[in-house]
Amino acid sequence: MLNRHLKCHSEVKRHRCPYCGKGFNDTFDLKRHVRTHTGVRPYKCSLCDKAFTQRCSLESHLRKIHGVAQRYGYKERRAKLYVCEECGGTADSQDAHLAHLRQRHPHSPLLAKLARKAAAAPAPRPGPAPPRPAPPP
């Protein structure tokens, strides 16, 4: 956590916004920033028509506007939401998210990145040979 914070003070910004050139040290921060350009608002209020770029903004809205407090246990993780940065669609699982990308956005940069990673990964090493059946008596 401290390392992540220290990176924000670094002069070297490894990730650049393709829209305005602003630099970020973290892909998470870049992704959040890019939504200000694309208009992707994946976190939708179930009680009204408002939508937000960040989950924390939705939770703040629910608490302040609708009086709905989220109940999370200490250090309890919320369910992960997979967001399509192309259209703002959401999925509850990585498999569903990838299926959406393949069907709707076959030229998505994320699919290209995953294909490059798969091509660069070493081939799995074969495990031990299965035991041979015993010869008949």
UniProtKB/TrEMBL annotation:
Keyword Zinc attributed: yes
Primary subcellular site in the record, as a coarse category: nucleus
MF GO annotations: DNA-binding transcription factor activity, RNA polymerase II-specific; RNA polymerase II cis-regulatory region sequence-specific DNA binding; zinc ion binding
Database matches in Gene3D superfamilies: Classic Zinc Finger (3.30.160.60)
Subcellular locations according to the entry: Nucleus
Keywords: Metal-binding, Nucleus, Repeat, Zinc, Zinc-finger
Any one annotated GO CC term: nucleus
Pro residues bias spans: 123-137
The organism's place on the tree of life at top rank: Eukaryota
GO biological process, one term: negative regulation of multicellular organismal process
Pfam families: zf-H2C2_2
Similarity-based family: Belongs to the krueppel C2H2-type zinc-finger protein family.
Entries under PANTHER family matching the protein: TRANSCRIPTION FACTOR OVO-LIKE 1-RELATED, ZINC FINGER PROTEIN WITH KRAB AND SCAN DOMAINS
Protein's name in the database: C2H2-type domain-containing protein
Organism: Hirundo rustica rustica
